[in-house]
Amino acid sequence: MPARNPTGFDVGQFKAAASPSSVWAKRDPWARNETWRYTGPFSRFNRFKGLFPGFGIATVAFTAYCAYEHFFMKDDHHHGDSHHGEAHH
């Protein structure tokens, strides 16, 4: 017969109570009080939704500016012309 622990602490009972499939884990008295942390405005999506405020508006504005510059701004420099270098002898 194994020696009994003088403190009365039973490791087997502790492991059974700490396992996720234990009866105590299913009837957690604090579970109802903890659910607010992970639902509604505190869900994972809602917590990270406001991480970069204004990023969506800035992306749309930058894209619109690039499109405007590409289609409507005239390039007055004519970088590809061959006669550009002839005047600089």
TrEMBL record:
Membrane topology: Single-pass membrane protein
UniProt cross-references to InterPro entries, sorted A to Z: NDUFB3
Pfam family name, one: NDUF_B12
An individual GO BP term: electron transport chain
GO cellular component: mitochondrial inner membrane
Entry's localization field: Mitochondrion inner membrane
KW Electron transport (keyword) present: yes
Source superkingdom: Eukaryota
TM spans (from-to): 50-68
Keywords: Electron transport, Membrane, Mitochondrion, Mitochondrion inner membrane, Respiratory chain, Transmembrane, Transmembrane helix, Transport
Family assignment from sequence similarity: Belongs to the complex I NDUFB3 subunit family.
Record function comment: Accessory subunit of the mitochondrial membrane respiratory chain NADH dehydrogenase (Complex I), that is believed not to be involved in catalysis. Complex I functions in the transfer of electrons from NADH to the respiratory chain. The immediate electron acceptor for the enzyme is believed to be ubiquinone.
Name listed for the protein in its UniProt record: NADH-ubiquinone oxidoreductase B12 subunit
Gene source species: Penicillium arizonense
